[in-house]
Design a protein that fits this description.
Length: 418
């Protein structure tokens, strides 16, 4: 809804309320009887006093004698004395015939009835207009939520993912809200960051490959030197020669150890990621799965048993992102999810209909830089499931991978407290 249209409609409803209030106040101030009809009725009574059949009945009234007794009434509910008439704002006129006071006539007033009717009408109108105003406010709130609040929350979640290192999930571009251009810019930033990370990954891999080659090239001559020194140690005839050969042997072991440390240190970065788990309501897992399933491959919304789960929300989101991303990349089929308890764990099972992997390769998938034989031509570093398994272990759980009769399953064993 356009802001100008909303403002005009709200102002219009307030104007209508003001007009109704003014009309009600003006209408309620008209309290008198029609003087012409009153005089005609009074004249009729004077001329036909005693003959009730000839009295004018165009108005409702009560005829009282000089002692205050009721002689005639056109209907019930009319005041029968002056005090009641004054309380009800009814007109009391004296009846004088040939100069003699014969009594009085109390004309029934409709002021109270008119005011009550006006109040009812006014109340109905105000309620109706208030309902329209509420509907306008609610619709504008929903419009603001759809075009500003929800896109902002989505961008905030996206920023958290980027900060957590997840650059694979794109941010859907929607130009129908105020953040449309920002959304596109954010996704371009994600793409550029991913390219930079891939380039960094390639450089890191090249460095690791160089280190591995150097390690191998160094180890080969060192092994020859060590074996020769050991042989020399056995063949040496004097202690001094034996001491030299032993020193060569010791230094060969040091060179081998240093070479191994150099290689191992280049592949140890992933284990330094922090995981800070705490108890959360299990319902958050549904929102996390919906957030990870940006291609809407999930065919069902799993019934998550109510409990508390021991997770790091950021790392669990990354875990689910990795599982769904792998399914998108290697299976590209519908996905099903289910949840159940097993001992002290809530098990979240995510299954696709892909070809799976050879059984002998299953244990390797959780190792660093290991990938299945079906990954040829697909980009990836072999770190996703390794990091997922690391996160699960540091949260007190575990990751289990297995082939199904039709498809492939990832089972997340999450510590739970029912």
């Amino acid at each position: 809804m356009n802001k100008k249209i909303f403002a005009v409609l709200i102002i219009l409803t307030f104007v209508i309320e003001c007009v109704l209030c003014v009309s009600f106040l003006k209408g309620s101030s008209v309290t008198g009887q029609d003087p012409v009809k009153v005089n005609r009725c009074l004249k009729s009574i004077e001329e036909n006093y005693g003959d009730q059949s000839k009295y004018d009945r165009s108005l409702d009234y009560a005829l009282l004698d000089a002692d205050g007794r009721v002689l005639f009434k056109t209907k019930g509910g009319i005041s029968e004395n002056a005090n009641d008439a004054v309380k009800r704002s009814e007109a009391v006129l004296p009846l004088v015939i040939d100069g003699a006071f014969m009594g009085s006539v109390i004309f029934h007033g409709t002021v109270d009835e008119n005011i009550a009717s006006g109040r009812r009408t006014m109340t109905i109108c105000i309620i109706a207009i208030s309902a329209v105003q509420c509907a306008l406010i609610v619709s504008y709130y929903l419009h603001i939520r759809r075009t500003i609040t929800k896109p902002f929350e989505k961008m905030n979640d996206f920023a958290v993912r980027i900060a957590g290192g997840n650059l694979d999930v794109p941010l859907t571009v929607d130009r129908g809200h105020v953040f449309g251009s920002f959304t596109e810019a954010f996704d371009i930033m994600r793409s550029e960051l991913k390219k930079a990370r891939m380039a960094e990954k390639k450089a890191s891999d090249d460095k690791k490959e160089t280190i591995a080659k150097l390690s191998h090239d160094i180890k080969t001559p060192v092994a020859s030197i060590k074996s020769t020194s050991e042989l020399g140690f056995e063949m040496a005839k004097d202690d001094r020669s034996r001491e030299y050969f032993n020193l060569i042997n010791i230094k060969s072991d040091q060179i081998k150890a240093l070479t191994d440390n150099l290689f191992n240190s280049s592949v140890s970065e992933a284990t330094e990621i922090s995981v800070d788990p705490g108890y959360q309501d299990s319902a958050v897992l549904i929102d996390m799965m919906k957030s990870s399933d940006y291609l809407n491959k999930l065919r069902n919304e799993p019934q998550i048993p109510q409990c508390r789960v021991f997770i790091d929300k950021l790392r669990m989101q990354q875990t689910l992102d990795n599982i769904f991303m792998n399914s998108y990349k290697y299976a590209d089929t519908p996905i099903e999810a289910s949840a159940f308890f097993e001992e002290d764990y809530l098990v979240l099972k995510i299954t696709d209909e892909g070809p799976g992997v050879p059984d002998k390769e299953l244990p390797l998938l959780k190792e660093k830089y290991k990938r299945g034989s079906n990954t040829e031509g697909k980009d990836g570093a072999g770190l996703g499931l390794y990091i997922t398994d690391l996160f699960m272990q540091r949260s007190g759980g575990k990751l289990v991978l297995r082939n199904e009769e039709k498809g492939f399953s990832a089972l997340l064993y999450i510590r739970a407290d029912a």
